[in-house]
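Q: A reviewer asked whether we had any structural model of the full assembly, not just the individual parts. We don't, so I'm hoping you can provide one. Inputs are below.
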Amino acid sequence: MTGSSSDVAELASREYQYGFVTDLDTDVVPPGLSEDVITLISTKKNEPEWLLEWRLRSYRYWLTLTEPTWQNVRYGPIDYQDISYYAAPKPKAALASLDEVDPELRAMFDKLGISLAEQERLGGVAVDAIVDSVSVATTFKEKLAEAGVIFCSFSEAVQNHPDLVRKHLGSVVPYRDNFFATLNSAVFTDGSFCYIPKGVRCPMELSTYFRINAADTGQFERTLIVAEEGSYVSYLEGCTAPMRDKNQLHAAVVELVALEGAQIKYSTVQNWYPGDKDGLGGVYNFVTKRGRCAADAKISWTQVETGSAITWKYPGVILQGDNSIGEFYSVALTANRQQADTGTKMIHIGKNTHSTIVSKAISAGHGQNTYRGLVKVLRSAEGARNHTQCDSLLLGSDTGAHTFPYIEVKNSTGEVEHEASTSKIGEDQLFYCRQRGISEEDAVSMIVNGFCREVFKELPMEFAVEAQKLLSVSLEGSVG
Amino acid sequence: MLEIKNLHAKIGDNEILRGLNLELKAGEVEVLMGPNGSGKSTLANVLAGHEAYDVTGQVLFEGEDLLAMSPEDRAAVGVFLAFQHPVEIPGVGNLYFMRTALNSLRRQRGLDEIDAMDFLEIAKEKMALVEMDQSFMSRSVNEGFSGGEKKRNEILQMAILEPRLAILDETDSGLDIDALRIVASGVNALRSPDRAMLIITHHQRLLDYVVPDRVHVMAEGRIVRSGDKELARALEEHGYVGLDEASPEAQVATAARP
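A: Here is a predicted structure for the entire assembly that you could use as a starting point for your response.
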């Protein structure tokens, strides 16, 4: 990665002010969903005819669906006609200085050690563009262009690389996939697009930090990453800083295409607003993430989920090609009234396909944490292997941890292992730490971080450090 | 340094310590022996601040009320317990754990924290004392350690944290002769005029390596006999029942125990 975090912040704030959003209208489409609204979205974004048709097909199909209820989460009914599906990303009402930012939010920034410049950006303070940041942006773009890597917003990709988008959009998560993915297909407004040419190792970790408006792409985000044969990319999504959003429902779709021998490493740190202590006002994060591996390809999902009132996501891998590899490493923390129903799907189709699942769930307060994972070995998947490890850690007695493993094996040469454990944070562990002089709160955070180490070590270095801090902050006050 | 007066401790209705009195002086190494269930480990846990017990009585550490302090505050004033069964903390590096502990203590004492590089030097020096290989430092705290390795790890922590009062709860149990020698030499190296040690043991054999200033015998939640190292030898020979001067009730209770 290039540039310090303050450079990044400056960059982001500059682009926010002068980025592509400024030439769009700032009007908001009235709440409600109809073919007219979808047509309007498509027109405003100057989309080609095929994409509008795809959106409309999705919408018509969505009308035939009912919202799923099988998840182990509870929330009130969502009125889909009460959501505004298109709001041009207008500049936020800028605050004059950090003093005007919500003190609670500032306290959180301080605990996370976020630089002042970045605090200003995240808090919505108007920051003057600084000349230096231009060079950061330029260096970054030049380096990627040299390698032939395309990394831009989804809207830009539709304009500049329509053939690539058309070829791969919906190829991993079809528009008929599920209620929320179908809704997303109809109404998505923006997201990220990334293309790595054949044999290229992407020269840097791609972070949504570097892409303008990443934080403002709205509630229906669409990400598409295509790694051509033998290429490699590591992609970082999200941010450890708390993300507030007025939109309660977030239904994103992420599609990863790993062609022969390609590797995609996708890391997420999700810290959406979880709601207050009673769970009011938090974000519903209903996401569909899936990758498809051709022969000898590898897709690795790593996620640290600490935010959102409700998290509902199962990043999966379709192991289509022979010898392909899928990995899923997850830490999900639920505190207060948070609920998470998360896990993965590993679909073994090719021969000698391997998958690894490591899930660490931590429940504190009244948090409810569910692991739900599907391992499917099809008849064709000669010699498939899976190893699943699900560990749950409970802090306090009002928490819940649940595990729903689904295993379907149609080929007798397949080997599927499942290990699960549930433990309460040990009184004896806490006493041991405290006897050595470590405060109870530090001890809890140390034990929890130790519990998650297998997952954190999969994260890129600086992300791992941030994730550890985030976990400690999220746990504050949850013990005792 | 430590004054224990009329100490009672119980879990639920089960009274384990029943009016225990004991005094430890700086510079002394004292040994506490006694049959299983006499309350030795309870005493160690109560002194360290384990919250499972209802405790009454008085414990003064350097004149301060120890019972009023949290476990971490007791650690900060210099109380250390080498656990009988050291717990495993998966995923937390041993070296990291010890540095965190030392720096927590230093912070509470108003001292500067020690950075990772300097700490490594300290740790290396102390590891030589307990003949511990450096590979132990990158492993998780006690995870996958053998019984002897766990006990050596406790002595290592004692050496690094340099407590004023060290309580060793059966640190010699389950050790082979080499490990016993290593643990004993660690203890001897840490003997100092301003440090007191209370060694809880079942075996006279530790005392072949560590010469105690005094030996106490505990039964039924009280100290029933105190003496010099010859007392330990007599116990080894005759057992607790053979203690002719032990209180009659202690003898009866001991004999009645299965």
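A: Points you may want to mention in the reply: Confidence is low (pLDDT under 50) at residues 1-26, 89-94, 124-136, 209-217 of chain A. Residues 131-147 of chain A form the longest helix (17 residues).
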